[in-house]
Amino acid sequence: MKHIIVCGKLFDGKRDELLEGVEIRVEDNIITEVGQNLSRTPETDVIDLSHLTVTPGMIDAHVHSDIFRWQKIWDIVTRSATWCNLGHLHTAQRSLERGFTTIRCHALGDPGYGVVDVKKAIEAGYFHGSRMVVACHMIGTVGSHADFSQIFSENPNLANSAQNPAIGAGADFFRDVVRKEAKFGGDFIKLFMSGGFSTPNDGPEDQQLSDDEAEAIISTARQLRKPTTAHVYAPPLMQKLIKLGITGMEHGAMMDAETAAMFEETDTYLVPTFCPYEEIIDLDEANLAKKPEFFQKKLRHYAEILKKGREIIVKSNIRLGYGTDFVAVHECYESWYEYRSWMRSGMDPFRILKAATSVNAGILEIDDKIGSIEPGKLADIAGWPRDLLHDEDALSECGFVMKNGVVYPTYKTT
Ligand SMILES: [Zn+2]
């Protein structure tokens, strides 16, 4: 199939400008030419997007895709593996309809490796859905932020039987966990260095993996050529991870200047997931009240540190990726909310757009295939009716989506 896409404006994924009068030639699933007044034959299918701003398909780098509805997050522990894996499929479908053609999935629930099957079933064309890059488990210690069986902590028998197989202790245990993640098809390794906000029994400054356990995970993954990322907040823990040679990190919301400089020097990426703390940064009592009491309490306690950390991240030159991490308030496929948070934080819109396209493609280690509109790349293309440079909710409305050369229906949230 041969298409020419006529763009209103074009953000190509890399340049800090919107180009006008540009056309994209797509042959089968590949972008073969980008330019003006491209030649046409009678067989060429012309897709007129002159009313839209065209971009590469967006990428969300932090999606807990097995959550169907945030109000029922604990289904990941109380329901079956099949339910969790249907959740991944549901999210991948909803994300694609919203212009996010790739999602990096941080799987929570299935004790097995079902997220790999969901990814492969979409790749094989049995279902429509976003391209998935997956971590099969949250790797961490007993009672940590990764150990969701803590919701049953008043019933130790129940909690012990609900404990995920990637939860344990000791360097050898974690080496084995990482080897299995690689063996069964995980694309990246996710470790939990610190506690967090969304679990009842820990805090964001707690160190939850010992130094030797973190080292075992990161070095084993490196031996197997798998990238590593960590859930982490406190600066001393981020500094430890950089010294251990971690590929990147998630959150980092308590960032300080010294740690930011280390990120910059080592080109370690950060997916800062602004949205989950938005209610406390830009005080929104109504949305705050939707979170469990312990979650609210922790956010209020750390409010000033989170605000300062946000400022340092925005002003830094850290390689920032775009990711949402929704486990409360918003559905995990409503990736557009993060755009609003970054815009409200004073981030340059081109930095946001690059984070969600070319930078994220690099973080996912598939920037040879996606993340920009240029010849040779896969035809992952989205179109947006609203003003991407000034409208903080511009990504809430998707007017066109193509993944791997195939056009899919879009869902409009407004
Ligand atoms: Zn997360």
Q: Describe the biggest sheet?
A: 8 strands, mixed
Q: Tell me the overall shape.
A: globular
Gyration radius over CA: 21 Å
- Beta-strand level of the residues, as a percent range? 15-25%
Please mark out the parts with pLDDT under 50 across 5 or more consecutive residues, or reply none. Answer: none
Helix/sheet category: alpha/beta
Mean pLDDT: 95
Structure annotation, total helices = 14
CATH fold group of the largest domain? TIM Barrel
Spell the H/E element sequence.
EEEEEEHHEHEEHHEHEHEHEHHHHHHEEE
Helix content: 25-40%
Architecture of the largest domain in CATH?
A: Alpha-Beta Barrel
Q: Give the bound compounds.
A: zinc ion
CATH evolutionary superfamily of the largest domain: Metal-dependent hydrolases
What's the SSE blueprint?
Blueprint: E1 2-10, E2 19-20, E3 23-27, E4 30-35, E5 45-56, E6 58-63, H1 75-78, H2 81-97, E7 100-106, H3 114-123, E8 131-135, E9 138-139, H4 156-161, H5 171-183, E10 189-192, H6 211-223, E11 228-232, H7 235-243, E12 248-251, H8 257-266, E13 269-271, H9 278-281, H10 285-288, H11 293-301, H12 303-315, H13 337-344, H14 349-363, E14 381-384, E15 400-403, E16 406-408
Parallel strand pairs: 1-5, 6-7, 7-8, 9-10, 10-11, 11-12, 12-13
Antiparallel strand pairs: 1-2, 1-3, 3-4, 5-14, 14-15, 15-16
Helix pairs in contact: 2-3, 5-6, 7-8
This protein binds zinc ion.
